[in-house]
UniProtKB/TrEMBL annotation:
Pfam family name, one: HTH_18
Keyword hit for Cell inner membrane: no
An example Gene Ontology CC term for this record: cytosol
HTH araC/xylS-type domain span: 191-288
Keyword Ribosomal protein: no
Name recorded for this polypeptide: AraC family transcriptional regulator
Source domain of life: Bacteria
GO terms, molecular function: DNA-binding transcription factor activity; transcription cis-regulatory region binding
Record keywords: DNA-binding, Transcription, Transcription regulation
Amino acid sequence: MSPARGSASSATGAELARTLHVRPGVGVAAHVVQGEGLEIVRIRVERPAVILVDRGIKTVKPARGGAVRALPGQMLLLAGGHTVDFHNRVTDGERYEARWLMFGGTVLDDPYYLATARRQSAAEAPQPPAQVLRRVPSGLADAFERARRGLAPDPSRPEAVVRQQLLEVAHWLLAEGMVLRVPPDDARVSGRIRAMLSAQLDGEWSSDAIARSLAMSEATLRRRLAAEGVTLRELIADVRMASALVLLQATSRPVSEIASAVGYDSPSRFAVRFRDRFGFAPTAVRGHARAQ
């Protein structure tokens, strides 16, 4: 999940409160709404994330490890640096709905949090890519929502306060034996390119420009990517499509505007690329709620 920079939020209840707020380096808060159930495959989750399911059922299947499922009122913890498949099911005939909180590295580098985590035996064991918390303490649920709201744009709210709100969630999870860790930097060329593209989705990214940014020749760039099993064209399309998916789920922006935001001048061309990547049209994300 690589949301676009900036923030967008719905203004009325009629828009089902879709929201997306980003504070670079600190965190991301999203309220995801889908009008129909969908299976979304091969999504790269770069940073640790916590998801609270409000409606429907969410199943997460990591590339390595077993699948986990969360029902309404349950919470999922995703470790950063993993590729996963999501299956979001609608069970009430209306919609799937969930709230996300993603943690920036500057939050989880807090010395007190790291020392506390090390003192707990659970912190020494490898954490699976996905875990479910079936009984969410009320204190954790309250802290989770405060942190999400804290990430909303507000010049009067100091960034240090927002960091502490996110840290409160991390400590609540620690009390449940669930540790949030900053994943190691992705040393792969594809990982470095993903980070570069995510910072400017609508940029004119050529192989020459990317190779120069990585201080290598185009031939070396192609060779390194081939060794990782991906082409540059596939990588650029995947980063743009993943970001478009987030914007469709968590904002009420028109599809044409989202297409432009991720680098496509033509909405129809964007729709074709999106369907090629995910197997469904952009409008399917909003389903029968797409008018909202």
